[in-house]
Amino acid sequence: MTTRTFLGGTLAAVALACTAQADDQHQIESVTLSDIRGMVFCEFLLISDTEVTIYNTSANGECDLDAFGKLDPTEIAREHGVKAAQLNGPKYWIMDEQTLGLGETKKFGEIEARFAASLPVASLGSGEGADPYAPYVTMKEQKMVYHAGKAVYELVDADGNAYVLNAYGAQVKDADPQNLADQLQPADGWSFRSRVLDSEMVIVQKGDQPNKMVGDDLHQYYSLEAAD
Asked: What is d(CA 134, CA 203) in angstroms, rounded to the nearest whole number?
């Protein structure tokens, strides 16, 4: 198992990690987002020589995909005085509610997004996020709530450990995560399943403790259900 501190991908659904260093540089407040299942969000990565700063649209309402599609990463980098910029999205939340730490708001073209994380530039790696079906550890502060009677989508490892999907990408057929059963190619020992919850599922991840996650071969990210 490797240890990483990054937003995955591609970077989105490892999402919203806030380190102690970020708390020192940004005024972080706890924000609860409700009724977000299916909400479309986008992220903006501002890349310097040493760090990647991530801004996320979730607290500002649904991402305007028309405006997002017109953005030029080179122009964004110039406007914000950084070496490079990356656009990440669209993504769609699976959870029904979450509480997380967010900082100041920046504007990217016509889109507003709030500070979500500041991470070492090495976190970008190849730009493709974590290796699929290889569990890793991230340090982030986030509470995720999945309501009873709603569907969840899980990867299960050879030992029976279940990881729940945080958000899905535009590559999911018909925008229905149920289709991942046909789209994914799980590694040996891994399987995909979906189920309807009999009771509320709550996952609490703490910034001062390791939190286990895993990615699939479509670069979507799942949190270990025992994380609370």
From this structure: 20
